[in-house]
Amino acid sequence: KDKDNYKKTILIASSFGMVNHISGLGETPHLQISSAGKKVYEEHFDYLRRTVEVKKITFKAFKIMVENLIDSVGDKYNVILRPHPSEDIKEWESIARQNNNISLQTGGSISKLLLDCDILIHADSTTAIEGYYYSKDVVSFVPKEITDDLYEVLNPYILQVSHVCRSTEEIIKT
């Protein structure tokens, strides 16, 4: 790599299939545990309700964070947005069309993108574990609107391997 012209790469991995599903069904928590059966679903209903709430709040804030981050970094970084395969990509396509500084990548394994990036930004995605394994700077976006009772549904292992940032400004400082 030519060190003078090298730009770091930020990989933004979204994982909002539960509230932005490719099927267009809207909220799909039932798809997450459908194979576990009705009894498990009923026992975990409150957890699922809070998880859906976290995903809804975070999805809305994540889109704004992505746009603010792109505006902030300009062309100083390569920015790649990689939606989860279960997601409807229409909203991400719209953001990519409006910003020349971002590349939308869909399909295939995220591993190659992770290997090639310098920074991973996610929101409660298990991709964080893989990014940590590859010694990447891993940032978990948890918007300020996530209250303590909602925060507790986030995966503690993912949070443990991530710098938790509550705003775009915090991400930029990190």
Provide a short characterization of the protein structure:
This protein is α/β, with parallel strands linked by helices and 174 residues long.
SSE layout and pairing:
Layout lengths: L8 E6 L14 H5 L4 H6 L1 H29 L4 E6 L6 H9 L3 E3 L6 H6 L2 E4 L4 H7 L3 E5 L6 H4 L4 H5 L2 E3 L2 H6 L1
Parallel strand pairs: 1-2, 1-4, 2-3, 4-5, 5-6
Shape, principal axes of CA atoms: globular
> What is the structural class?
alpha/beta
Radius of gyration: 16 Å
Total strand segments: 6
Largest beta-sheet details: 6 strands, parallel
Beta-strand residue fraction: 15-25%
Oligomeric form: single chain
Percentage of helical residues?
40-55%
Terminal Cα separation, in Å? 24 Å
Low-confidence stretches: none
Put simply, the count of helices is 9
Q: Mean pLDDT, as a whole number? A: 90
Order of SSEs? EHHHEHEHEHEHHEH
* Order of strands, widest sheet: 3-2-1-4-5-6
Describe the model.
- A 6-stranded parallel β-sheet has the order 3-2-1-4-5-6, with helices on both faces.
- 44% of the residues lie in helices and 16% in strands.
- The chain starts with 8 loop residues before the first strand and ends with a helix.
- The protein is of the alpha/beta class and 174 residues long.
Which properties best describe this structure?
single chain; 174 residues; alpha/beta; six-stranded parallel sheet; 9 helices; 16% strand; globular
